[in-house]
Amino acid sequence: MPETEPWTLEHKVTWFVQVRTLNSRPDSEGARWRETEATGLVLAVCNCGLNTGWIPKADMTAQPALADVQQHAALIAQAETDRSQRCRS
Ligand SMILES: [Zn+2]
User: Fold this and answer.
1) What's the pTM value of the predicted model, to 2 decimals?
2) Interval between CA 7 and ligand 1 midpoint (Å)
3) How many domains does the chain have?
4) Is residue 45 part of a domain?
């Protein structure tokens, strides 16, 4: 049986943008409208368990958790490079 490398958790970050909606009351003709807008908060989660919680988009670079996310981006880029090199050989 061939040896295998150990199982590893890959870093796969997903970003969410928080939105809220405003539903109007029916107008004189019974029509309703809905308005949607971003609250200004964003959240990142990773397959490894990283979760920034809701953080202000404007303060993203000041959040310690985001530094982890940026490191994740570097790790993901490296993993994709390694993967493509493995596929070529
Ligand atoms: Zn991760």
Assistant:
1) 0.60
2) 15
3) 1
4) yes
